[in-house]
UniProtKB/TrEMBL annotation:
Its biological purpose: Binds to the 23S rRNA.
Full protein name: Large ribosomal subunit protein bL9
Pfam family, one: Ribosomal_L9_N
InterPro entries named among the record's database cross-references: Ribosomal_bL9, Ribosomal_bL9/RNase_H1_N, Ribosomal_bL9_bac/chp, Ribosomal_bL9_C, Ribosomal_bL9_C_sf, Ribosomal_bL9_N, Ribosomal_bL9_N_sf
Protein origin, superkingdom: Bacteria
Organism from which the protein derives: Streptomyces chryseus
Alphabetical keyword list: Ribonucleoprotein, Ribosomal protein, RNA-binding, rRNA-binding
């Protein structure tokens, strides 16, 4: 099935790309979550609009991405969350939580869709988080999760 991506999907493409995927993947995952729309002949206008919007929000050059990476790696991110006695969290830390903690710590504003957690963060302590800034540039930063 041909679809038009509305958001970046790892391993598949970026917003505005027209890709061919298995029917079930598109019907059960991508379309219901809003990551894609079905391709139609009239959808070609949507592709141009999505690409224009992506260019506005995208980091244009590798130099810009490296500047933001340097700022991100210089920020100490502390995230206060509720936890139990054994150090386990009530729930888990989400990419949106990390993005807002980066902003609160004085770092640059980061889109939550660019934050990649290696595994769900469900315990107190230090954890490594990757922020994908550009196709070739990713910033690795430490996030310290503390009890609130």
């Amino acid at each position: 099935m041909k679809i038009i991506l509305t958001h970046e999907v790892s391993g598949l493409g970026t917003a505005g790309d027209v890709v061919d995927v298995k029917d079930g993947y598109a019907r059960n995952y991508l379309v219901p979550r809003g990551f894609a729309i079905r391709w139609t002949k009239g959808g070609e206008k949507d592709v141009a609009q999505i690409r224009r919007a992506r260019k506005i929000h995208e980091i244009a050059t590798i130099e810009q991405a490296n500047e933001i990476k340097a700022k991100l790696e210089g920020v100490n991110v502390r995230l206060a969350v509720r936890s139990g006695d054994a150090g386990r969290l009530f729930g888990s830390v989400t990419p949106a939580d990390v993005a807002s903690a980066i902003k609160a710590a004085g770092g640059p504003e980061v889109d939550k869709r660019r934050v990649e957690l290696g595994a769900p963060i469900k315990t107190l302590g230090s954890h490594q988080v990757s922020v994908r800034l550009h196709a070739e540039v990713a910033a690795n930063l430490g996030v310290e999760v503390v009890a609130a």
